[in-house]
Design a protein that fits this description.
The protein has one domain: Glycoside hydrolase/deacetylase (TIM Barrel, Alpha-Beta Barrel). 44% of the residues lie in helices and 11% in strands. The protein contains nine helices and seven strands. The strands form two sheets. Strands 2, 3, 4, 6 and 7 form a five-stranded parallel β-sheet that branches. It has a two-stranded parallel ribbon with strand order 1-5. Helix 2 links the parallel strand 2 and strand 3. The longest helix is centred in the N-terminal third of the chain and has 23 residues. The structure holds zinc ion.
């Protein structure tokens, strides 16, 4: 029989291990296999705006109009399910010269998923992205930014790059968000090669949609040009 002290030690070791794995799964700078990018090493004043989730019929046209107005190119990390459902909007994004990236099919957490399920999520979404007409490299961004073992392994074995971010001005408490302070956060943190994460596609993201033109104008005023992630990657 194990004595109480030893049990306590074992529980402690287990807790520390779990905590370490959880932190590792959320890291924006490190994963166990393959290529992860959270910011591009460049001296040029370039920044990539990335928008996760969707597309949705409610907000895609408005976002595209805004990007057109300011002559800005962006990267949309879309889900396979929404791309299939809203193919018209996905095609509009591609036709406007923006980049589509893979954000999984169902947007479930992929931490404990089997390789088979990971493969279905990723390959199925890639097919939809191709159907929308996007021809460049398809980059990946994990739902909730979460990855640990199998997902990085699959991405590495299929030569896919995992794109994280170095600036995320949204907190997850969406109700208390102030567009102006979100924009200020981006403008204070931005550096050449930064990747900015925003969510614009759902109703509860009004603050982010309001912040977008303030962010774009502010970045331009600081001398930054906004490009797709793939374009940013070519400058490193
Ligand atoms: Zn997402």
């Amino acid at each position: 029989m194990l004595n109480t002290k030893l049990w306590l030690k074992l529980v402690l070791v287990l807790l520390v291990t779990l905590l370490t794995l959880w932190q590792l799964s959320s890291s924006r700078q490190f994963q166990l296999f393959g290529t992860l990018v959270d910011k591009v090493d460049t001296e040029q004043k370039l920044v990539a705006l990335t928008f996760d989730d969707g597309p949705t019929p409610q907000y895609t046209a408005g976002i595209l109009q805004l990007l057109e107005l300011y002559q800005v190119k962006a990267t949309f990390f879309v889900t396979g399910a929404e791309t299939q459902r809203y193919m018209t909007q996905a095609k509009q994004i591609v036709a406007a010269g923006h980049q589509l990236g893979n954000h999984s099919w169902f947007h479930n957490r992929m931490l404990l998923m089997s390789l088979d399920d990971i493969s279905r999520e990723i390959e199925g979404t890639d097919q939809q992205i191709r159907e929308a007409g996007f021809q460049g490299d398809i980059l990946f961004r994990p739902p909730y930014g979460k990855k640990l073992l199998m997902l990085p392994w699959y991405l590495a074995s299929t030569n896919r790059t995992n794109i994280m971010w170095d600036i995320a001005p949204e907190t997850f408490d969406q109700d208390s968000e102030d567009p102006q302070s979100m924009a200020t956060e981006v403008l204070e943190q931005v550096e050449p090669g930064s990747i900015v994460l925003l969510h614009l596609m759902y109703k509860n993201r009004e603050a982010s949609r309001t912040a977008l033109p303030i962010i774009i104008k502010g970045l331009k005023a600081k001398g930054y040009r906004m490009v797709t992630v793939s374009e940013l990657l070519t400058t490193q």
